[in-house]
Design goal:
The complex is a heterodimer of chains A (604) and B (320). In chain A, 59% of the residues lie in helices and 12% in strands. Chain A has 604 residues and is of the alpha+beta class. In chain A, the strands form two sheets. In chain A, strands 2, 3, 4, 5, 6, 9 and 10 form a seven-stranded antiparallel beta sheet that branches. A three-stranded mixed beta sheet of chain A has the order 1-7-8. Chain B has 320 residues and is mostly helical. Chain B has three domains: 1-117, no CATH class; 128-183, no CATH class; 189-320, no CATH class. In chain B, strands 1-2-3-4 form a four-stranded antiparallel beta sheet. Chains A and B meet through helix 2, strand 2, strand 3, strand 4 and strand 5 of A and helix 1, strand 3, strand 4 and helix 8 of B.
């Protein structure tokens, strides 16, 4: 055992050094930051090592076993001797450790190194992008944002002259020019209480208080909101109606031709308020936004601040601002995402998203979908409609916030708790009329309305799985593949393929263990003579053995993948994993018996 | 002497077992591979296929005969010693394989081999399949020529469209598999290996049909493969012997595979031109190949014999 570990460890360390040297002195590197070159080459060396590790470990293990068994072959004259059982115990321990390490290398090591290398290769591009955005922000009078981008760029590349320049020129103005924080506008969906979370009785109290203070806007707003959220039998409804009517009368009485500046502003506020109450949130938003930007006094006016905020929140629930999507393309976390959605009537929607950027908002994750296209066909494959939008904003919405009819029309499974909610219209933050709308085409336009919001009929978790699946099943985590396999067909992916890859990856440790037990049997058959002197020249043969081992390992891997299809075909997708486990454990027992049946009757 | 004779005689059943088990395992693997290449997403995998099994025998058997020398050598390394008789038996078995078994197989093949026509399986609808630089989704039936096509390289507003497509396109991309989805999960067996063995097999048939001299020329390949066994006398550690054997067998196989491939065509033409000037060479088929094979065999045998003699002398000296 000690000899096996010595040879195995020694050879692995030797190959590790060789791979690191190969990584540092061979191969070309892409455009990198100066300080990343060394790390990039180190990762390249480690990747070489991960690639050859199975063959190297097999070589070290086989040679180690062949030397160890050859030097101590005693006690194995008969088959299934106790000495052989003892050896089996040792090789099992080494095999399990090697299997664990090789599985970690394949599942964690290689993907991690690939991602690190890709991150390093992206860095120069990111620095350039941060500097570009920073400069653009500085030029548009936002030195605070410019400074933040400069800091990000300097963090990545402390020697970047452009980043340092931007940082120094943006530092001073950003300290003197602190803008009031604009609250994040996150859409909310009413759930029995008001948007602010007030109950009906609280709203009544607030409405009455505002009326008493002569704040007719607030009095009317709270009273109307209270009426909207109250149930028909609520005793607060009648007093709320009275307050609303009284406040509205007061508001209407003030309507007269605007003569002074205050009257003109009041008229505008009233118009904005009426528009908001009529449900034209976007128009109301622009009215209050214009008012807010007119003067410093108006920007802190309680009515303007309050109703701008409210309108903004409502707008955020039905569309998003164009400037939210500026610069997000560089930070996409998934690309070329496609899937199909089958509706209850047999029609199919094929969804394609060019790129997805996840951004952490104050209320969880928001995803910006670039180049969202949907083509719908009927059950016969005939074109129904298509939709394309440059950017869409996706947020997670709980199913409990949707009304029953919507849930039924979406045909959602009962276990779905949240769905992806798409905002398809993007508007300018300041200018009314500037909007990016989804483009629809219909086979038959009759009765069809262009939607600017959409709920995808799938669970939000499935959408996240589809984003993962877009990179290919090999890069998905095993739990994700496990969750996705049963649903793959529903979204246009092959269940067999995902199941086979799940088998390949889940049973890999068992496969490696099998190979190591086989190698131990081989090492016993071709062990060194008990009294034979070890010649130094034989060490030179080890690398050749590694090449042979590499080719044999790759062939075995190919067979392993082929057999997994057979297991899949024989056992079906439901029980393939259990059947696969059974088959490979059976083979492991067989191989173990072959090893245990070795004896030294025909020793050299 | 009896022990030596026993060891020599045991080689016969061992070799038969190698040939038989090699054929059985190889044919089964061929059938599995063949069935998997025919698998289409959404349809069940055919586990047993008698036609593939039958056709597989004619593909696998010559490969087994070619590789049997190496496997028998491994057996000899494992059960070494026994004096000259097992070596003689090894030579006889090699001669039998290339002088009787292989020609008999060629005759058998010419009488009974039939080509398998793969079943035409239509691609299933409802899956995303890559076709060249696009991804195709056929919503209803493979016969419907309208498919949703995703062109990842196109501008975002033109990336997704319903188009008329050629149904053949995704099928061609998947070759030798029927479904590209399945092909993406199994490394395709390198074409040059299969093609190389097919070329060698074709040459074997041509050589057998052209007469004994041609067959002898072709059999120089077998001679080189079997004579690499001689190198196993070079080392006293059996594991090192196996490595020597693997390297030499791979070398000979690769050289012969490469020689028959298109890459070596200019070299073959040049060699033929040069060797045609030498008087005794013209009657030989592929003179360069024969010369390389025979020369390597002679080197292996000489090196092996010298190593065996040195070892024998050392052992004698030790016993004195």
């Amino acid at each position: 055992m000690k000899r096996v570990l010595q040879i195995l460890f020694g050879y692995v360390v030797f190959c590790f050094c060789l791979c690191l040297a190969a990584g540092f002195f061979t191969g070309t590197v892409p455009e990198l930051l100066e300080r990343s070159v060394r790390s990039y080459r180190l990762y390249a060396g480690l990747r070489y090592f991960c690639l050859i590790l199975p063959a190297v470990a097999l070589t070290g293990f086989t040679v180690g076993c062949a030397v160890s068994f050859g030097r101590n072959p005693e006690g194995s004259f008969m088959r299934f001797s106790p000495a052989m059982f003892q050896r089996y115990g040792h090789i099992m321990v080494v095999g399990l450790v090697c299997s664990f390490i090789l599985t970690c290398t394949a599942e964690i090591g290689t993907p991690l190194l690939v991602s690190r290398q890709s991150q390093l290769a992206q860095m120069p591009k990111r620095v350039r992008e941060y500097v570009r955005i920073g400069n653009a922000s500085y030029d548009s009078g936002n030195p605070g944002l410019a400074f933040q981008y400069a800091q990000l760029a300097v963090k990545l590349d402390p020697k970047s002259r452009d980043a340092l320049e931007l940082s120094s020129k943006a530092e001073l103005p950003q300290k003197t020019n602190v803008k009031p924080d604009i609250p994040d506008m996150v859409p909310e969906i009413s759930s029995g209480v008001s948007e602010e979370g007030y109950s009906v009785s609280t709203l009544r109290k607030k409405a009455e208080e505002a009326y008493a203070k002569g704040n007719w806007f607030d009095a009317h707003y709270y009273a109307e909101t209270g009426i909207a959220v109250a149930s028909a039998k609520d005793t607060n409804v009648e007093p709320l109606k009275q307050t609303a009517a009284a406040a509205w009368n007061k508001l209407s009485q003030s309507e007269k031709p605007a003569e002074t500046e205050d009257e003109r502003i009041y008229k505008q506020k009233l118009e904005g308020y009426k528009t908001l109450m009529d449900g034209d949130n976007l128009k109301a938003y622009y009215i209050f936004r214009t008012l807010s930007q007119q003067s410093r006094a108006l920007s802190v006016d309680p009515d303007v601040v309050r109703y701008l905020n409210l309108a903004g929140k409502r707008v955020a629930a039905e569309s998003f601002f164009i400037d939210e999507t500026f610069n997000v393309q560089e930070f996409e976390n998934a690309g070329n995402v496609y899937f199909s959605l089958h509706r209850a009537d047999g029609s199919v929607d094929v969804v394609y998203i060019k790129g997805v950027t996840a951004v952490k908002g104050s209320d969880g994750m928001v995803q910006y979908l670039r180049g969202l296209s949907i083509v719908s066909t009927d059950k016969d494959g005939t074109f129904l409609r298509s939709m394309h939008v440059e950017y869409a904003k996706l947020i997670e919405v709980p199913v409990s916030d949707l009304d029953k009819d919507t849930v039924v029309s979406l045909g959602l499974d009962p276990d779905v708790t949240s769905v992806p909610y798409l905002l398809l219209r993007s508007v300018d933050r300041d200018t009314e009329g500037v909007a990016a709308m989804p483009q629809y085409e219909y086979a038959d336009k009759q009765g069809a309305a262009d939607e600017v919001q959409m709920i995808l009929p799938l669970s939000y978790d499935d959408f996240e799985l589809l984003l993962e699946a877009s990179a290919g099943p090999e890069l998905m985590t095993i739990p994700s593949i496990f969750r996705f396999t049963g649903k793959a067909v529903r979204y246009g992916f092959s269940e067999e393929v995902f199941e086979q890859i799940m088998l390949n990856r889940s049973l890999y440790p068992l496969f490696i263990l099998l190979i190591f037990i086989l190698a131990a049997g081989f090492a016993w058959n071709y062990r060194i003579g008990e009294k034979l002197m070890f010649k130094t020249v034989w060490v030179a043969v080890f690398p050749i053995f590694s090449v042979v081992a590499y080719l044999l390992f790759k062939s075995a891997e190919w067979l392993y993948k082929l057999f997994n299809y057979v297991i899949l075909g024989a056992a079906g997708t439901q029980s393939a994993l259990a059947a696969g486990c059974g088959v490979y454990v059976g083979v492991l027992i067989l191989v173990s018996l072959v090893f245990l049946s070795r004896n030294s009757a025909d020793a050299a | 002497m009896i022990k030596s004779l026993k060891k020599a005689l045991l080689l016969i059943p061992a070799y038969i077992l190698i040939l038989l088990s090699g054929c059985v395992i190889g044919v089964l693997l061929y059938m599995l591979y063949y069935n998997t290449t025919g698998l289409v997403a959404g349809k069940p995998l055919q586990l047993f296929n008698i036609h593939a099994l039958y056709a597989g025998f004619f593909v696998i058997a010559p490969i087994v005969i070619m590789l049997s020398g190496g496997i028998l050598s491994c057996y000899r390394i494992r059960h070494s010693k026994g004096g000259f008789l097992p070596v003689l038996m090894f030579i006889l078995l090699g001669a039998a394989a290339w002088g009787v078994v292989y020609p008999s197989f060629i005759q058998f093949k010419s009488r009974f081999a039939t080509a398998v026509t793969p079943e035409k399986t239509a691609l299933t609808p409802g899956y995303f399949r890559r076709a060249g630089s696009t991804v195709v989704y056929v919503p209803v039936s493979p016969l419907a020529v309208h498919a949703v096509v995703i062109n990842e390289a196109a501008a975002p507003d033109a990336a997704l469209s319903l188009q008329k497509i050629s149904v053949v396109e995704p099928v061609l991309d998947a070759s030798p598999f029927k479904d590209i989805l399945i092909r993406d999960t199994i490394p395709v067996m390198p074409g040059w290996i299969l093609q190389g063995f097919a070329d060698i097999e074709m040459r074997a048939e041509q050589a057998w049909n052209s007469g004994y001299v041609s067959w002898l020329c072709f059999a120089s390949f077998g001679l080189a493969l079997f004579s690499s066994y001689a190198l196993t006398f070079c080392s006293q550690w059996r594991l090192v012997d196996v490595i020597y054997l693997c390297v030499m067998q791979s070398g000979i196989l690769s050289f012969n595979l490469l020689y028959y491939s298109g890459y070596a065509r200019p070299v073959r033409a040049y060699a033929e031109q040069v060797l045609s000037r030498i008087k005794f060479v013209p009657p030989l088929d592929e003179p360069l190949l024969v010369c390389v094979n025979v020369f390597s065999s002679l080197v292996f045998i000489c090196v092996g014999a010298a190593a065996a003699l040195t070892q024998m002398k050392t052992n004698r000296r030790r016993s004195i």
